[in-house]
Amino acid sequence: MAEPAADETRRRPTVRRREREAGGARETRIKVSYNDDEHAIVKEAAERDSRAVASWVARVSLDVAEEIVVPTPVNAKAVVAELIETRNQLKRIGVNHNQIAKVMNSDGIVTDPEMSAVYRALLKAIQNVDRATLQVMRERKERG
Fold first, then answer.
1. Is residue 25 part of a domain?
2. Residue range 58-91, pLDDT digits in tens
3. 98 shares a domain with 129
4. Domain limits at 62?
5. Which residues have a Cβ under 8 Å from the Cβ of 135 and sit 6 or more positions away?
6. Residues 6+ apart with CB under 8 A from 69
7. Beta bridge partners of 16
8. Do residues 57 and 42 touch, judged by C-beta distance below 8 A?
9. C-beta of residue 53 within 8 angstroms of C-beta of residue 17
10. CA-CA distance, 56 to 64, in Å (whole number)?
11. Into how many domains does the chain fold?
12. How remote is the C-alpha of 37 from its chain's centroid?
């Protein structure tokens, strides 16, 4: 038996389709319209998730409606990044604090410069959290 040609053995990349719901077949249809630029953006996003466009639109809209995800404006990404970095700083400061407490509990000596460094880092982290929190509050007020 002859082997298939190389072109016949290549498969199209599979597109992951929306999973079937336990509630049965979906009968309700919604028409969504996009201009060419918007469609290109949506199509690219669906391709990143290996989904058909309609499947991707349905999944994302359900996720937002069910509050599984909350849409975040692009300009808020910097604020979120700052909050993540501040969270990491606070974690490091907590480790430093625990190390100082361990030394002090074992009748060790903690120098003033060591204590000052921890408190300066703590103050900086708190200021970062305050700044980011105020920014998030301003953005939420603008949306409301």
1. no
2. 999 998 888 887 777 766 777 778 788 888 888 8
3. yes
4. 30-71
5. 79
6. 60, 63
7. 51
8. yes
9. no
10. 12
11. 2
12. 24
